[in-house]
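Schema walk-through. Below, the input block comes first and the output block second. Nothing else is stored per chain. Lengths vary across the set, and this one has 128 residues.
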Amino acid sequence: MAKDPTDQKTGLDKKTLARFKQILLKEREQIVGEVKQIYESSKEMGQDGIQDIGDEAANIYNKQILLSLNENERMRLQEVDESLDRIVNGTYGICEECGGPISLKRLEVRPVAKYCVPCLTKLEKAKS
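--- output ---
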């Protein structure tokens, strides 16, 4: 008897999983590129000779903004890496809350989704 290529838990076939893997790898590459750019920009700040107190304050402020952006990028990168791990482990597309499948539409909109829409709604209501 031939084995069905569709994962019974997630409803995602190997071709769909491969497509999401490519999307996630591309996003990872983009994030790493952005972080490198931010790092280079922060290194260049304040290296243009003599500065007055106003220039120095502006540079400190700009570096703080860049560092906070860097933190956001780090969080995005972590989400992408966790999603790639779930693909390898066979748990991609499975809600971490209820164990049910995450809809294909939701994954297409947010490939790093960990929760199905009903569980996400429930978790967001619990936070507020």
